[in-house]
Write a structure and sequence with these properties.
five-stranded antiparallel β-sheet; globular
């Protein structure tokens, strides 16, 4: 199915103008459908710093990142999006931390081996006021909320648990291992091919 046909099907399902383009009306309707609140009533829940990170994500992921912020707020949990797309250089810098650079290890993924490199993954932080909570039982509740809206949660990973991590797996990768999916993402990215089609 072509992207335009998929968008038309979504627009039809949501009862909005059917034109095959994912514009403001379409994304707003998707957001409202996922969160259950109109966009205008809750827009202030996503702070400007979170929006900067969300803007780096692929358009398919952006409304889900916002939806997670809103669902968390509806459940009394204040979160911010603290990381989105990373360049290969940024990923290598993080990978060096705790290895060839000072600090604790923060990732086991080299450049090209992180979903962050392809704009399909983001990290969240739990906050109480302005205080960031690196370790909190609230991350488990957020994992459930994220999976409920269609995201994969790093807290379910078997080898390296990453509770702040969420990602949107492309439909074509549903039967692939993480390693195989990342190989295909590298190929698609290098060939300037769409990630989600």
């Amino acid at each position: 199915m072509k992207t335009e046909e998929m968008i038309k099907a979504i627009q039809t399902k949501l009862g909005i103008q059917v034109d095959g383009r994912a514009g403001t009306e379409t994304w707003g309707a998707i957001y409202t459908h996922l969160v259950g609140l109109p966009v205008d009533n809750t827009i202030d829940l996503v702070d400007s710093e979170s929006e900067k990170h969300i803007a780096t994500l692929l358009p398919e992921v952006q409304p889900l990142a916002r939806a997670l912020v809103h669902k968390a707020a509806l459940n009394g949990i204040h979160i911010k999006i603290i990381s989105g797309l990373r360049t290969y250089a940024e990923q290598d810098e993080l990978y060096a931390q705790g290895r060839t650079k000072a600090g604790n290890k923060v990732t086991n993924a080299r450049s090209g081996h992180s979903n962050h490199n392809f704009g399909i993954a983001f990290d969240i932080g739990v906050f109480e006021g302005n205080k960031y909570l690196a370790d909190s039982a609230k991350y488990k509740a957020l994992g459930v909320l994220g999976m409920d809206i269609g995201l994969e949660w790093g807290g379910n990973w078997k080898t390296i648990v990453d509770q702040p991590h969420f990602q949107l797996r492309p439909a074509w990768a549903n039967t692939l291992s993480e390693k195989s999916m990342l190989a295909e993402l590298r190929t698609r990215s290098a060939g300037r091919m769409p990630i989600y089609v």
